[in-house]
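User: Please predict the structure of the protein below. I'd like the answer in structure-token form so I can feed it into my own downstream comparison script.

Assistant: Understood. Taking the following sequence of 292 residues as input:
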Amino acid sequence: MSTNKLFDEYYDRVHLQGGTTCCPGCGGPLLWRMILDAVGPKTVVYGDGPCAMCAIRNIKLPNFSIHFSFAADGATGIVAALRAKGREDLTVVSSAGDGSIGDISIGKVSAAAERNENMIQICVDNEAYMNTGIQKSGLTPFGAWTTTTPSGKEAMKKDIPLIIAAHKPPYVATASVAYPNDLKAKLRKAKEIKGFKYIHTVIPCPTGWRFDPAKAIEVTKLGVDTWVWPLYEIEAGILKVNSKSEQKPVKEYLDTQGRFRVMSAEQIDFLQKETDTRRKNLLEANGKKLFL
């Protein structure tokens, strides 16, 4: 079988055209291959905005976009149209970046969660406004360099998954492209649940994070293994920690990326303590109902 035919069969199977305009090492194309593999062909996609979502233009399924200031709004209209037509056989996936979900459209995502719209809302989080010049977003981590925080961000990253969980939707989860089996399992679970489902995934950005593109998965995996980005899910209000691996020092994660070179020893120590506290709180809450 020719190489071209192998490629054609592969991209037919993953419902994605080959080649994107994303930077080398970007987690966007990898994420979309996983999403489409998990949710299947009977899917309608809404979303646009972040550069990591350039891969969405390569999707060979119905996909629509308005603007990233309308995250969840556009998908709400699609859900309403399908409901009016009596279509219950399609999955609606809404997707937006950290600037959209964490800042510009947080109210619209909140409203969709409150209404319990029947969609999967995904946050493609590369932790800054990467497509407009690497400016700080509300989801940029503490201490990170951006063009608008040249000395490092002073505030902590917004905890959007727990903010959404406070709306009491049926399902909320964090995920990582470095843990594909966990990511796909969460997407498949979300597909079978009726109502608003929120999945927040941090994806690597070599350009903004300042690392070798060949190290994308290695760097992203360290985010999970240091508990800077813990993996958990909240189903029907019950929290479950998905990865309980032995914690690596936060400094191992920070040292892989140029964006953290502006951090002082005191700031690194502060972030380690904050991460330790979060890990402790998550493990203590494991198996328990949140937001009683």
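That's the full token string. The two ends are 58 Å apart (CA to CA).
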